[in-house]
Write a structure and sequence with these properties.
The structure is a single chain. With 316 residues, the chain is α+β, with helices and mostly antiparallel strands. Helices cover 16% and strands 28% of the residues. It is built from 6 helices and 16 strands. Strands 1-2-10-11-4-5-3-9-6 form a 9-stranded antiparallel β-sheet. The chain is globular, with a radius of gyration of 21 Å. The termini are far apart. It binds zinc ion.
Length: 316
């Protein structure tokens, strides 16, 4: 595969995604220092770059991303996530569409679909984002006896302007790169078949939406009530305003729900009451909604004795 100078992306890759440049929103991703991040600000509002613009303006890009609207993405993160879909009559190996695999892990891949206009209109606000955890993160131990966290597994489904997926280039965290299995390149991109779309519609019923007649910015589903506000910058997972803000703060200011995502996620190895390192937020419990899982954290309130100790410490 011939690589372009200074890029991990081949001419062949670019020429194969070019026929989609008018319909999809491609963006440059992956710099030297940061594995997956888009190279432009406010990318959620960007109409997308042509292949020629990507090559000319961003020769340093390590990868190419695409905004997942109008695209629909099924993101399989781990063997248990694949099994979950198979048991749900959605065998990812039996569906022909664009598939993004990774050289370094056969059980972490994405299927991309292009829903029809009729299908998109069936989603509330034409969007959805959902995460189904199929295996919790666990504590493990290396040969040297050090404690490590073994990443959890999940199936994530999204068709959302605030999210993007990488379709080609480097995956720096593993040292590998993305590839399209033969017959499953961008040429195969299709609308989701019935059993896949029916599942999305099932999830859509639980997706937070504005109540009829209510102010459109107030979401009043079971999980997102007026008592909870989405936060632009989550102090626990670092999710920012461009990262599809999902974490929520209660109006009391003392309780925070941090979303368990794949790119942004709170630490999952804490005991109840234990503080997130570098913050004054203490882990409380796991909470679940129809469209994903959160960890709930509460503001740590020092006991009178601790206050006294801090006070005497400062005055020593
Ligand atoms: Zn968070």
């Amino acid at each position: 595969m011939a690589l372009l100078p200074g890029s991990s992306l081949s001419e062949d890759t670019f020429s194969r995604i070019q026929p989609l440049e008018d319909r999809l929103r491609f963006i440059p991703t992956g710099s030297k220092d940061d594995g997956k991040k888009p190279l432009i600000r406010e990318w959620t509002k960007h109409p997308g770059f042509t292949v020629q613009e990507l090559q000319k303006q961003f020769p340093q890009a390590k990868s190419v991303g695409v905004i997942t609207q109008p695209l629909l993405c099924f993101d399989f993160d781990g063997e248990s996530a694949v099994n979950h879909a198979v048991l749900n009559d959605r065998n990812p190996d039996y569906v022909n569409t664009w598939r993004i695999n990774r050289t370094t892990d056969p059980n972490r891949f994405k299927l991309l679909f292009l829903p029809s206009k009729v299908q998109l209109a069936q989603l509330h606000n034409g969007q959805i984002t959902h995460s189904h955890r199929t295996q919790d993160a666990t504590k493990g131990r290396t040969k040297e006896g050090d404690d490590v966290v073994i990443k959890g597994e999940a199936e994530e489904i999204f068709c959302h302007p605030g999210r993007q997926v990488i379709v080609a280039g480097a995956h720096p965290a593993s040292g590998g790169h993305y590839f399209w299995p033969v017959g499953y390149g961008p040429e195969a991109l299709s609308a989701p078949p019935k059993e896949w779309w029916d599942y999305v519609l099932e999830l859509d019923r639980d997706y937070p939406r504005p109540a009829a007649g209510a102010n459109k910015t107030v979401s009043t589903s079971r999980f997102a009530s007026r008592d909870w506000q989405r936060i632009e910058h989550c102090p626990i997972c670092g999710r920012g305003p461009d990262d599809n803000p999902l974490c929520q703060l209660h109006r009391d200011g003392e309780t925070l729900r941090c979303f368990l995502g794949q790119t942004f996620s709170p630490p999952t190895n804490l005991e109840p009451g234990e503080l997130v390192p570098g913050t004054d937020w203490a882990f409380s419990r796991v909470s679940s909604s129809g469209w994903g899982e959160f960890l709930t954290f509460v503001k740590d309130k020092p006991s009178p004795l601790q206050k006294l100790q801090t006070w005497s410490h400062r005055n020593v």
